[in-house]
Structure formats: C-alpha cells, structure tokens
Design goal:
Elements: H1 9-13, H2 17-26, E1 30-35, E2 38-45, E3 48-54, H3 63-78, H4 82-90, E4 94-102, H5 113-135, H6 149-157, E5 159-160, E6 164-165, E7 168-175, H7 202-226, H8 232-236, H9 244-253, E8 260-266, E9 281-283, H10 287-301, E10 304-317, E11 324-332, E12 335-345, H11 347-358, E13 363-372, E14 375-386
Parallel strand pairs: 12-14
Antiparallel strand pairs: 1-2, 2-3, 4-7, 4-8, 5-7, 6-7, 8-9, 10-11, 10-13, 11-12, 13-14
Length: about 400
C-alpha cells in the first residue's frame, strides 16, 4: 500500500484547531493536559500509548508544521495514508454522500464526459429530492420543480467533493452543526457528555432521508424484478422518501449506458449517531429500467401541481370552434431543460395562443403537470398570458 505524505503547507494550515480537536475526539483520543504549546492528547492502540500534540493557535508561524507532526502520528496509529487522514479531517463536520460508478471500458478514475456531467446533475437532483422530502409537510410521490426557500438555502450550503479513483467516485459534503453536550461544552473540554440533543438539524435529517430513501428504492426495484407485485413497492415506499424525482436521479447516475453504481453515506464524526448501520447500496444495471418505469408511473398517478410553463406555442389543433389543443416548447418552473407540454384550452385562451403563435411571442400558463406515456400534459390550465420577459 502506498503511504502518501502531505507536505503542502497551505493544505496543512487550512485545517483549523477546532477541526483537529473534533477529529481527535471522534476517534477516541482523550486530553491529558494543556500547555502553551497546545493540547496533549493520548490514545491506547494495541497496548501501546500514543501521544499527539494539537496546536491551538492557527496564527503561529509554524502552525502548518505542527499540523504536519500531528498528521504523522494519526496516520501511524490508524495505519493509513496521511492524505486519507487529512481528507477525513477536512470533512469532520460534514456528512459525505459518495457515489462510486462503474462505467464499462473506462480507465480507473475516469468517466465519459457526458456521463460525468449527467452524474453530477443527478447527484444534485438526488440531494434536492431528499431535502424536498424532509421539507414537505406530508410524503409526496412527485416533488414540484419549484423548490421551497428552505430547500434552496440548504442546497447552497452543500459542497462538491473532489472526484477520486475506484472506478470513478464523486461526492457531496453537507455541513452539519457538531453535537455538543447538554451543557454546550466545546470539543476542547475534557469531559463531553453523550447526551443527545432532542432533534436532529435539517441537514442531518436530509442525509438520513437520502440514505433511507435510496435503500427503499433499491429494495423496491429488487422486489419488482422478483415478484408479481410490479411497481407497488415504490408507492408503498413514498413515506420513506421515495419519489419520482429520486428515482429519476438514480437512473441518471447510471449514465447513458446504464452502468452499475454504489451509493454510500459517512456521517460527520463531529455529530455521531449510535445504532446506525450505513452499508453501501449497490445498484445493478437491471435495476435502472425498473427505476425509470417507477418514476414514470408515479408521475402518471400523481400530478405535479401548480407548475408554470413558459415558452413558445409550436402546435395548434382544433376542429371548428371552441376549445382546442396546443403544445408549448419551453421550460417548467425553474428547470432550464427545454420540454414540450401539451394542453387543452378554452376558446378565449386558444385564440390568445393563436395570436402568440402568429406573432412568435412567448406565453406562460399555470396548471398541473402529468405524464401520459411519453408526453407531458398540463391539466387545469389557467392564467395564459404573454411572457415578453422570456425574450430579453
């Protein structure tokens, strides 16, 4: 095994004293004493006692060198590379969701450009689906494209991790507040209670919801392949966080070729939880068509309510006078993808859509979005109007 050593002083100096302390505490080091040079931590490993000196003042000129000495001790006690240990220190207060993809005919650590772009977008959609499930007042089989303020705030806090080898691994880091004792002690205190806070913060709830929903979708996909229950398992798993959005995101992680992939979660060591076994969840290629069918069926059963469709009228059809059918090519809410949506309009709105089509003017209309086969339909359309801002 290659034991990489870290010599980049900027990377070493970037780790704060609190991150170092949280990592030491989370890995069962205990404080022996303090002095002007820092905090002395000790730990017994296999009958041997190790001592580590953690610097407290990041403004010291030799702070990076002191972190380097600490990192060397940690790598020795954990029998790991310094680079791996430093990576874990940097995410000590973040839940890390990782996706290990297995694209065929690719060198380790690489993925096709289109598949890579799709994988990152799908990973964002996966996190957004879990956040929407936590934010919603009740379980939903289809989450609206328009995100709540709480979900948008959360997504702005999530960070993308550096891709790594092992086929191709991508990750997102969700910062979570550290778990403190009931007395709100700091990680520098000698004795920290194991008392748990009454409720987990929104960030941790999203992490757990994502993992539980992915596991439930995996189970439902497996059941659909082996039993005669079809896709009923997906509808029954909606309370666990399974939704059409989540299933579509999982399909996207498989790329155009539908390769296998594995989803894993590592909870932030600064906010530990007991009695949680978070084994990686691996999706085979034959799971993906089932997930795609489940997403389509969920969207057909449950409309996406009160969406805003904005675009150009590209087709008009009616027989005689009265109501008629149109299709609009444009966007749905905040989703920038170009979609085609069909709808039936009463006579007045149909006439307005005809004028917009003749004048090549964009329109906007609200309604409930449903999928019928390969088409998207807007039911209960209302408030059709010109959308001049689209052309700016």
């Amino acid at each position: 095994m290659i034991r990489a050593h870290v010599t980049d002083q900027a990377a070493l100096a970037a780790r704060s004293p609190s991150e170092l302390a949280m990592y030491l505490r989370a890995n069962d080091w205990v404080i022996r004493d303090r002095d002007g040079g820092g905090i002395h931590w000790v730990k017994s490993v296999g009958g041997d006692e190790f001592e580590a000196l953690q610097p407290q003042d990041s403004s010291l000129r030799d702070y990076a060198l002191r972190v380097r000495d600490l990192l060397s001790v940690l790598a020795l006690t954990e029998d790991r590379s310094e680079l791996d240990v430093l990576g874990d220190i940097s995410t000590v207060s973040a839940d890390v969701h990782s996706v290990r993809t297995f694209p065929a005919d690719r060198a380790p650590g690489t993925i096709g450009l289109d598949d890579g772009v799709q994988a990152f977008e799908s990973l964002r959609n996966l996190v957004a689906a879990a956040a929407s499930a936590v934010s919603a007042e009740q379980p939903r089989a289809v989450h609206p494209a328009r995100k709540t303020a709480e979900v948008l705030r959360f997504l702005r806090e999530v960070r993308i991790g550096s891709p790594s080898e092992g086929s191709f691994v991508l990750s997102v880091h969700t910062p979570v507040p550290p778990r403190l004792s009931s007395q709100q002690a700091t990680f520098f205190d000698d004795e920290v209670s194991d008392a748990l806070e009454p409720a987990e913060p929104f960030e941790r709830q999203v992490s757990l919801k994502l993992y539980d929903a992915v596991r439930a979708a995996h189970t439902a996909a497996g059941d659909a392949l082996m039993t005669a229950d079809g896709l009923d398992g997906f509808t029954q798993a909606v309370p666990a966080g399974v939704s059409a959005n989540l299933c579509e995101a999982l399909v996207g992680l498989g790329g155009e070729a539908g390769h296998a992939f594995e989803v894993a979660l590592r909870l932030a060591p600064s906010r530990p939880m007991r009695a949680r076994q978070l084994r990686p969840i691996r999706f085979r290629r034959d799971h993906l068509p089932v997930l795609e069918s489940a997403a389509q069926e969920l969207r057909e059963r449950v409309p996406d309510e009160d969406v805003l469709v904005t675009g150009h009228v590209v087709r008009l059809h009616r027989e005689g006078t009265g109501s008629g059918e149109i299709s609009v090519s444009g966007t749905i809410d905040d989703d920038e993808r170009l979609r085609r949506v069909w709808m039936n309009l009463p006579d007045t709105d149909y006439s307005m859509a005809t004028r917009a089509h003749e004048e090549m003017q964009p329109v906007s209309v609200r309604g409930d979005l449903v999928r019928r086969g390969t088409r998207l339909y807007l039911t209960n359309p209302s408030r059709l109007q010109a959308a001049p801002d689209l052309e700016r």
